Amino acid sequence: MADFKFEPMRSFIYVNVAKEDYRPLLQRWLYKTHVPDSISQFEPYVTKYAFYPSYPCPPDGDRFGYAKMQLTEHHWLVSDLDPRLGIKAIAETFPPEVLLWQGNITPEILEMMKNGPGPEAASEEDGDIGNEARSTNVEGANPFIFCFCPMWWEDDIKGAGRNIEDGANYRWNFAIGYPEGVSTEEGDKWLFEEVIPIFEKAPECTRILHSKVKKEINGGTGMEHVFEMFFENQSAWHKVAVEDTKAIAKPAWAQQDEFPFLKPYHKIIGCCVSDFTMSNNLANYRGYMPRR
Q1: Could you give the 3-state DSSP secondary structure of residue 64?
Q2: Bridge-based pairing state of the strands 268-273 and 170-176
Q3: Do residues 227 and 14 make contact, with C-beta atoms less than 8 angstroms apart?
């Protein structure tokens, strides 16, 4: 291990739930199976592993790619994708149904994965098939968005000095990318000259932080930036993100008619969460203990 590159960074996984009927299934798998699986794999080189449950989806949230389940955050000391970490004594339990619950595959694709001929077929116990499918983008479904960023925010755009006694924070964490054919330079000019100033000027938005996605880690899943913006509550978010942004002209490359003009869950995804979570798993997890 001495020759591993020490590379502190953090990652954000935006976990959606495709429909409410899937929420109990996804939540059970996350807390009963996935948390202990994950801790057993990466505890030596991860310092934080936390689930931040999403606040309820705000009005118009779907067009922003609102992830209705949670934001998952890891703090890494080395890259989890280093090939030397690929040998697992016990494989991750990742049934392909999880991808359906998250909206990453369709029911038809699940049927093919479970029963179809050839290498696509998978059993419920076959974690590797499900794990590999997380990196694919299938027609009719949404990609699995897993963004790596520097450990510390790179840009403090607004609200420096805000402290925990300044009030509750409704924190909108989101990742953003650009449509095919739009260069990073063109997209960034639009984002930083037309969009971010709207939020900077709005008194309802109290904090803006930004980092670039470290695409060298896993390709960035098509995303360029991660932002976190603070508001007092859902209404304040809606006033700025939905009402104030009506002043932004629709760009020629728009993938939808209204702001943010990007394809939801593909080129923009995020959720609103609190400052604090009880699901700081390395510190708090004590197993899946059902309510009596």
Answers
A1: helix
A2: antiparallel
A3: no
**Can you tell me the distance from the alpha carbon of 128 to that of 93, in angstroms, rounded to the nearest whole number?**
8
Which stretch of DSSP H or E encloses residue 73?
A: strand 70-76
pLDDT in tens, 69-103: 999 999 999 998 888 888 889 988 999 999 999 99
CB count, 10 Å around CB of 8? 12
Q: Which amino acid is at 246?
A: K
- Which two tokens mark 6? 């020490």
Determine if the pTM surpasses 0.90.
yes
Helices in 10-165 by DSSP H: which ranges? 23-28, 35-42, 97-101, 107-115, 127-133
Cβ-contact 210, 188 below 8 angstroms: no
Which pair of structure tokens corresponds to residue 130? Answer: 């499900």
Other beta carbons within 10 angstroms of residue 150's beta carbon come to: 15
Tokens of 50: 């936390």
Distance of CA 85 to the CA centre of its chain: 23
Q: How far apart are CA 149 and CA 135, in angstroms?
A: 18
- CA distance to 11, 16, 27, per residue, from 210 (Å): 13, 22, 29
